[in-house]
Amino acid sequence: MDEMTWVKLLDEAIPLFLLLGLGFVLYRGFRRNQNLLSEREALLKRYLLFRGDKQVRLKIYGDDENIRSELLKNISNSWKNFKRIYDQCLLSLGQNTTKTKRLLYLITLGLLINSTRHFAEAYFFFSLKAQVLHILARELSYYVLVIIGFFLLRSQTHKFLSMKGEAVKVDREILFFPNGLSAEGDQEVLYNEFDPLETAGGEDGKEDQNPGQ
To answer: CATH number of 12-194: 1.20.1050, 3.90.930, 1.20.1280, 1.10.3470?
Structure first.
């Protein structure tokens, strides 16, 4: 093959190779992040079930000072263990996201080098003015895909990672009131929904025995 054939082959092969790499990196990064987020969600559900059981036991056996002390100790230790595992999960999420971003930066650098090569070829071998619009339209489409990849990655992790990729520190209010229901007035809405002071259709929490009358 002559020189021009090799150049045309490179023009087609290099962007294809880089875009395939982009897709693979995003797929692997997204899948790993999703697994970690699912693991976090499952961990939170298990802890809430465990914590609820301990709270019930504390309410039932709270009059016994020894049992109460032991239950409070268990609750305190369980929170520490939960927080350690939870933080480790977010740390892994941050590490995987950082790794994915670095690979995306490398692919972007490869695209920039390839774009520079295209403009250099057009300048030295063809008429740059005649080729510039065609090159810009083709090359910019690649960077749109890169920008979308970064945007989707940020959308997946912005609730759990800062802009620097550091894990957001876990807090009881954030865990149990994830939508910012930390104010007393906001929490009262939840109590009114699940534990109302008065039950409709009866008095003192008793249902109406004759709803048809």
So the answer is: 1.20.1050
Can you give the pTM of this predicted structure? 0.69
**DSSP bridge pairs for 167:** 161
Pair 68, 121: CB distance under 8 Å? no
pLDDT in tens, the chain (213 residues): 566 676 677 777 888 898 899 999 999 999 999 999 999 889 888 888 888 888 888 888 777 788 888 888 888 888 888 888 888 998 999 999 999 999 999 999 998 888 887 777 766 666 656 566 667 777 788 888 899 999 999 998 888 877 666 666 655 555 555 444 444 455 455 445 555 555 444 444 444 455 454
Q: Is 147 helix (H, G, I), strand (E, B) or coil?
A: helix
- Tokens 């007035």 locate to 185
Q: In sequence order, what are the beta bridge partners of 161? A: 167
Nearest to 150 by CA among 102, 205, 204: 102
Contact between residue 21 and residue 92 where contact means Cβ atoms under 8 Å apart: no
Domain limits, the chain: 12-194
